Amino acid sequence: MSKPKGKELISIREAAHILGFRQSTPIVNYVNNKRLTTYSKPGSKRRWLSRGEVYSLPKLSSATQSTEDLG
To answer: N- to C-terminal Cα distance for the chain?
Structure first.
């Protein structure tokens, strides 16, 4: 897989917002479980995600979200 361009990279917090999570913990869990890949930007210590990969994940219902938030 090729590295996404700068505009296609989003923060973990933004990914959480897109998927309807109130916290970024579920997104970090997705990264740790290899469901999402992180990327780096020159001069940044943060981890970045591909916008396309995030949008390809299914959005969770509110009932599922509450159990996912617990870890």
So the answer is: 28
- 16-42 per-position pLDDT tens digit: 999 999 999 999 999 999 999 999 999
Supply the pTM of this predicted model: 0.73
Q: Tell the residue number behind the tokens 């020159």, with chain if given.
A: 42
65: Cβ contacts below 8 Å, ≥ 6 apart: 20, 21, 26
User: CA 4, CA 53: separation in Å to the nearest integer?
Assistant: 10
DSSP secondary structure code for residue 4 in this structure: P
3-state secondary structure of 71: coil
